[in-house]
Amino acid sequence: MGGRPMFILSEGTQRTHGRDAQSSNITAGKAVSEAVRTTLGPRGMDKMLVSDSGDVVITNDGATILDSMDIEHPAAQMIVEVAQTQEDEIGDGTTTASVLAGELLAKAENLLEQDVHPTTIVEGYARARDIALQAINELALDADIDDELLRQVAESSMTGKGTGDVATERLAEVVVGAIRHVEGDDRVERDDVRVHTQVGSSSSATELIEGIVTDADPAHKNMPRSVEDATILATDGTFGVRETDIDAEYSVDNVDQLTAAMDAEDRQLRDLADAIADAGVDVVFSNSSIDDRTASYLADHGILAFEDVDDDLTTAIAQATGGKRTGKPDDIDDDELGHADSVYVEKYGDEDLAFVEGGAAAKSVTVFVRGGTEHVVDELERALTDALDVVASAVDTGNVVPGAGATEINIAGRVREDAAGIEGRQQLAIEAFADAVEVLPRTLAENTGMDPIDALVDLRAGNDDTPGRAGIIASGETGEIADPVEAGVIDPAAVKREAVESATEAATMIARIDDVIAAK
Predict the structure, then answer these.
(1) Based on C-alpha coordinates, what's the Rg of the chain?
(2) At what angle do helices 74-89 and 493-511 cross, to 10 degrees?
(3) Which of 51, 77, 294, 422 is most buried, taking the most CB atoms under 10 A from its CB?
(4) Average of per-residue pLDDT across 180-201
(5) If residue 484 lies in a helix (H) or strand (E), which one and from where to where?
(6) Is 144 a catalytic residue?
(7) Are strands 400-402 and 471-475 parallel, antiparallel or unpaired?
(8) Quick one: which of 140, 160, 174 has its CA closest to 96?
(9) Catalytic residue among 38, 59, 85, 95
């Protein structure tokens, strides 16, 4: 080879390896975690997110914050994915998962500085995770998942989030009512609960609509704006002049021929409207546009029709009313038609909203969110969506655990206790895992205005006798150590499990990386 160097990477490629790579990745992950740490808990602070175009979002929702951040570092992006996974799987606990992942990385960094091998850290964290999951199972409350308990779960999820001028108790009733409405024999049909926001009025006007709400205008001004005991057609068929598959040209020599052609088109559209009326249809939801003449003829029959309805919504309306979506509006079978107690249009400012209430077959409901500004309704929508998700999870799994940091402090204690029986350096990693979990109650204490060290000492002492019965409860301008179950601070066990699993997975993945090769 003549002693010449061999280049295996293209010119301009950057490579970081060894301790430098580990330090860079861990620092990036911790930075992302710290960005949402102050939002944790009922006294968490909000973040103002400003996009390149000047759009402003004010929220303390961890998933929203991380998703809005312009993050380029690949390790930091993994923490964002932790929050996204938590959001997709459970719907809440995104900040918990992100903060825990960041603290696990911080503890791993300390172990690396003590020359503990990354593989040992990964194995120790995995064993600690299994212990933590077992501890969560043991802390599950032996209680019936009744409406009162579900209201507590909903309130715990929404406390500290932007709920406008309405108390969480009122919103919790709406949430529980929605989930109970779509509860089946085996599971909650969460997709049958929709959330629709409308600026105007106060957030206290938020209500549960037993049906579907959509932005839709009547296709013609002469159509009725309210229909009772409605027979509904949901379709993606054509409401204009049919086009032939043959590419043909027609020669028109005089006015009579032109008039005859126009009359034929008009007759075709009138026949379409007549066929729909003859089928007993009262209301039409069309995924496509409706020709003005067809709309006029439908109006003559007293039919209320909506055009250009969203594709998914057209299907949802068909399912919710017990019908089937059809592509042939002029050839309708009875089993394709749906039914609703009422369909009506109401004006909100300059907008028309269509309400389809009392679906005959499938249970579908809409949480109709009101608020004075876009910022209010957006944050209220996020809070309600999280609450709907956790209540659905509680109903599906039947497992809930004490909140307010009680579960986390017990996880840490259990992991630390079991670590004593493990030999070798893995014990250091397992103890580090326990210390990392305690960042959650410590952060709750900090955000509530308590001394974090004193709070941790009191939490440990309070949980020695009765595990899960001592947590950090916001009270007045600060907080206190009290029984979270008595205070009604309850979380689904699934939220805790997912947070532990996803945070551990991300932290161990980042800790194992010792070489970063970045293309130019």
Answers:
(1) 29
(2) 160
(3) 294
(4) 85
(5) helix 484-487
(6) no
(7) unpaired
(8) 160
(9) 95
List the structure tokens of 167: 């108390």
Number of neighbouring beta carbons within 10 Å of residue 205:
15
**CB-based contact 299:277 (threshold 8 Å):** no
Residue 189 sits at φ, ψ, to 5 deg, of: -85, 80
Calpha distance 129→430 (Å, rounded):
9
d(CA 392, CA 144): 15
Residue 259: active-site member: no
Tell the residue number behind the tokens 């005991």, with chain if given.
Answer: 229
**Minimum mean pLDDT range among 126-130, 261-265, 344-348, 349-353:** 261-265
Q: What is the pTM of this model?
A: 0.80
Q: Identify the active-site residue in 38, 64, 85, 94.
A: 94
For the chain, give me the number of helices (H) and strands (E)?
Answer: 17, 17
CA 262 to chain centre: 51
Q: How confident is the model at residue 6 (pLDDT cuts 50, 70, 90)?
A: very low
pLDDT digits (tens, 9 = 90+) for 104-119: 988 988 898 888 888 8
- What lies within 8 Å, CB to CB, of 101 at 6+ separation is 29, 33, 79, 82, 502, 503, 504, 506, 507
List 38, 39, 59, 61, catalytic entry? 61
pLDDT at 62 over 50: yes
Using CA atoms, how far apart are residues 427 and 469, in angstroms rounded to an integer? 28
Q: What is the pLDDT of residue 19?
A: 67
Q: Do 492 and 90 touch, CB atoms closer than 8 A? A: yes
Nearest to 362 by CA among 424, 306, 318, 308: 318
Residue 200: which residues within 8 A CB-CB, separation 6 or more?
348, 349, 370, 372
Task: Determine the distance from the C-alpha atom of residue 432 to the mean position of all C-alpha atoms in its chain, rounded to a whole number.
Answer: 32
Q: What is the dihedral of CA 338, 340, 342, 346, to 10 degrees?
A: -70
Strands 283-286 and 304-306: parallel
Q: Identity (one letter) of the amino acid at 394?
A: A
The set of residues, in sequence order, having a beta carbon less than 8 Å from that of 116 and lying 6+ positions away, is 425, 428, 429
Q: Is residue 266 among the annotated active site residues?
A: no
Say whether 334 is catalytic. no
Distance (Å, whole) CA 402 – CA 490: 5
Q: Looking at residue 421, what DSSP letter applies?
A: T
Alpha-carbon distance of 26 to 514, in angstroms, equals 11
| CA distances from residue 213 to 110, 172, 366, 375, 459 in whole angstroms, order as listed | 54, 20, 7, 21, 46
pLDDT at 255 over 70: no
Closest CA relative to residue 296, chosen from 394, 384, 218, 198: 218
List the alpha helices (DSSP H) in 438-480: 439-448, 452-465
Give the three-class secondary structure for 155: helix
Q: Give pLDDT tens digits for 166-181.
A: 677 888 999 999 999 8
